[in-house]
């Protein structure tokens, strides 16, 4: 099997036997994307099972928009996405993972407290946090986030 490259720490690694089994299983089930754990930095790494197994040469198209929130991590302009297969929420930009939606909500509360400009992209709906429509992210939001201290 091809080596997998972690985009976060740039390590190339061979999947473990267990991961190979999981990758084969998802390829057989027609799952196009799969998340595995980087053995070095433990970031999530998106892999394409069919490509890894040499059954396909094209990466799956980004058709589905699974973005739930602007990433509530300091200085990160990525998005929180739900990975239904891995049952985890994660941001591919900074590699942060949240096991539950509650944990995402906690991070949102913390980042808003730290940086009031973050209030513009999250809305509180009762006890639940919702995102504004991602097409409506205010101008200047990204540059403000870029200037946050890590
Ligand atoms: Zn890594
Ligand atoms: Zn992030």
Outline:
This protein has 150 residues and is an alpha+beta fold. Helices cover 24% and strands 23% of the residues. The structure holds zinc ion (2 copies).
What kind of sheet is the major sheet? 4 strands, antiparallel
Distance between termini? 37 Å
Tally of helical runs = 4
Identify every distinct bound molecule in the structure, by name, code or SMILES. Answer: zinc ion
Oligomer: single chain
Order of helices and strands: EEHEEHEEEEHEEH
Shape: elongated
Can you give keywords for this protein?
two-stranded antiparallel ribbon; binds zinc ion; single chain; 2 domains; alpha+beta; 150 residues; 4-stranded antiparallel sheet; elongated
Description:
The chain is α+β, with helices and mostly antiparallel strands. It has two domains: 4-52, no CATH class; 67-146, no CATH class. 24% of the residues lie in helices and 23% in strands. The protein contains four helices and ten strands, in the order ββαββαββββαββα. The strands form four sheets. The chain has a four-stranded antiparallel beta sheet. The longest helix is centred in the last third of the chain and has 14 residues, at 101-114. The radius of gyration is 17 Å and the shape is elongated. The model has no long low-confidence stretch (mean pLDDT 90). One zinc ion binds at residues 6, 8-9, 11, 38, 40-41, 43.
